[in-house]
Amino acid sequence: MLPQPIIEQLFAIVGQSSVLLETEDLQRFGVDHTSLWLAAPCAVVLPSTVEEVQSILRLANQSNLAIVPSGGRTGLSGGAVAKDGELVVALDRMNQLIEFNPMDRSVTVGAGMITGQLQEFAEQQGLFYPVDFASSGSSQIGGNIATNAGGIKVIKYGMTRNWVVGLKVVNGAGDILELNKGLAKNNTGYDLRHLFIGSEGTLGLICEATIQLTRPPLESSVMVLGVENFTEIVEVLNCFSRDLDLSAFEFFSQQALDKVVAHRGHRVPFQTQAAFYALLEFEHSSPEVVDKAMELFQLCVDRGWVTDGVISQSLTQAQSLWKLREDISETLWQWQPYKNDISVRTSRMADFLLEVEQLVVERYPDFEIIWYGHIGDGNLHLNILKPEVLSVDQFHSKCVNVSAEIGQLLAKYDGSISAEHGVGLLKKDYLHYSRSPVEMDMMRSIKRAFDPQGIMNPGKLFDC
Ligand code: 2HG
Ligand code: ZN
Asked: What are the pocket residues of ligand 1 if the criterion is a CB atom closer than 6 Å to any ligand atom?
């Protein structure tokens, strides 16, 4: 419970109606998409300006109050969970379009702007914001930046980091910093902007962002191909990416497809069943590109890598094929899955995939594992479904071992325990598989430099 004098000071900063104390609000704002921890914030505050954020953080420093930054709360690692009496600072009201610069093709927005709104704005200007994922209708730009969100077009456009040309932040000490100011080139020492990108709210609060927009994509085709094993998916990726400029290369298993088809009523891509499916997309950059794709498809069939396939004949068909992949994550929620979001370099993907599969089959034969992910980025989503007979706690204590074993394997392959979802609370115990002790110490020093009293999102990413 927040002491009354602090509540009064918060009222003075943002106004009484912007401080939420009702249980229902605390429950709503205190969790993210993981639903693994119980929400227990002391209050939720909704600032409207950067100066209000600054006053809140100064008050937090004086009162030794922990802060949890809150965006769309669509995260999958517990980064926005407030379970220990923290003050949630939600950016929902800082969602304005601040400035559009057509010549620079950049737009400055409040961190609370919904990703989909930024995408729509870009489209209205004849431009394109390419970072896209299933939760773009509710995730916020600030949260995307704090987690360096990836998505389904990373193979062509990169992660959120690639599109942030400026940030206005308040660091944990309560200073306002304007980082990079929209510049394309700026070689003036350490680029602090990039420290905030992916920092998971541990250094300060992202208040505004200047985002680079680009030209819209050309018309595209989508192919779904049936493949019998992991290694062949990588062969198919190699084959297509050598000759085509791919804008996506995703994969999912037959089990994933079965569940999406059963629960969303989608149609299967073709009648032949396969162990795995690759979904790839390419733009019509030349009149010959579709013929080239068909030629590559035939080559993959001849080599025995691909058993069947379909290519979209219309935008509607392309969208329906994408749904088979994009709806997997939401479909699986009913099984309370334990999620792993891991990566290795694409050149090591084939060997890695085989070893993970072997490990899982040998060590966890009773678990149902659903594979899918952004294979073109070396990023696998491995979801383990909770068997009905196990309680959530029993299930999780078993899964913790899976993560440790996969962590060891990742260390061997120089891979990452989190390709795109971030570390948060869920993966912090495994961070040492991807980061050396020296790196971890340096990260702690960086945190202290921005947040000397350790008020920003404590306990996330690592323990200080
Ligand atoms: C996706 O690629 C998302 O669909 C979610 O990153 C993955 O739910 C997951 O594990
Ligand atoms: Zn993903």
From this structure: 76, 134, 329, 339, 341, 381, 383
- pLDDT tens for 266-310 read 999 999 999 999 999 999 999 899 999 999 999 999 999 999 999
For 65, phi and psi rounded to 5 degrees? -110, 125
| CA of residue 373 to ligand 2 center, whole Å | 6
Query: Quick one: CA dihedral 169, 434, 247, 34, positive or negative?
Result: negative
202 near 461, Cβ under 8 Å? yes
Q: pLDDT tens digits for 345-382?
A: 999 998 998 898 888 888 888 889 999 999 999 999 99
| Tokens, residue 299 | 């080559």
Query: Of the bound ligands, which one is closest to the alpha carbon of residue 331?
Result: 1
Protein residue closest via CA to atom 3 of ligand 1: 329
* Ligand nearest to C-alpha 377: 2
In 197-314, which residue ranges form alpha helices assigned H by DSSP? 230-243, 254-264, 289-302
The domains of the chain, with CATH numbers, are 4-91 (3.30.43.10), 97-212 (3.30.465.10), 220-329 (3.30.70.2190), 336-442 (3.30.70.2740)
